[in-house]
Design brief:
Blueprint lengths: L2 E8 L1 H5 L3 H10 L3 E8 L3 H7 L9 H8 L4 E9 L1 H9 L12 H5 L8 E3 L3 H11 L16
Antiparallel strand pairs: 1-3, 1-4, 2-3
Helix pairs in contact: 3-4
Bound molecules: guanosine-5'-diphosphate.
The site of guanosine-5'-diphosphate (GDP) has 9 residues, from helix 4.
């Protein structure tokens, strides 16, 4: 299977609860390489843009408030079958339904405060990665800058 990329964010709840290191360790142990990474805080309008696909959902305002409430760690991850394998590693959206050992089972507080984001398709992974990182801040495994 071809090596490809996914995008993740460690959400404000997990940053606040001190889980950055543990979550990054799970990501590395599962065979993902970090291609780009930054700690930042989303403005309300950035959070609205990032979650634009959900703007008609009843929880949209709460989600935007939560995602802009504190810092996040954004990262692009590389692995064979990255999108699907990362969704398996993070577990179900609702942590009550997440499998044992998944990141959300271990670190989520609730359906909304569910510790991490993970892209749901290759197309969204590319869009979401570009939302945070210019091409010259993405590095291949060899450490070379990549033109993407
Ligand atoms: P994901 O792909 O597993 O992150 O799930 P979705 O794309 O369906 O939802 C995006 C994010 O919205 C989730 O990760 C949660 O943080 C949040 N969310 C989803 N469903 C609900 C809900 O019913 N209530 C609230 N408050 N937040 C939700």
């Amino acid at each position: 299977m071809a090596k490809n990329r996914t995008f993740t964010m460690i959400k404000p709840c997990a940053v606040k609860n001190g889980h950055i290191g543990a979550i990054l360790a799970k990501i590395n142990e599962a065979g993902f390489r970090i291609v780009a990474m930054r700690m930042t805080r989303l403005s309300k309008s950035q959070a609205e843009a990032f979650y634009g696909v959900h703007k008609e959902r009843p929880f949209f305002n709460d989600l935007v408030g939560f995602m802009s409430s504190g810092p996040v760690v954004a990262a692009i991850l590389e692995k064979e079958n990255a999108v699907e394998d990362y969704r398996k590693l993070i577990g179900a959206t609702n942590p009550e339904n997440a499998e044992e050992g998944t990141i959300r089972k271990l670190y989520a507080e609730s359906m909304q405060n569910n510790a991490v984001h993970g892209s749901d398709s290759d197309e969204n992974a590319a869009l979401e990665g570009r939302f945070f990182f210019p091409a010259n801040e993405c590095f291949s495994v060899e450490g070379k800058e990549e033109l993407v």
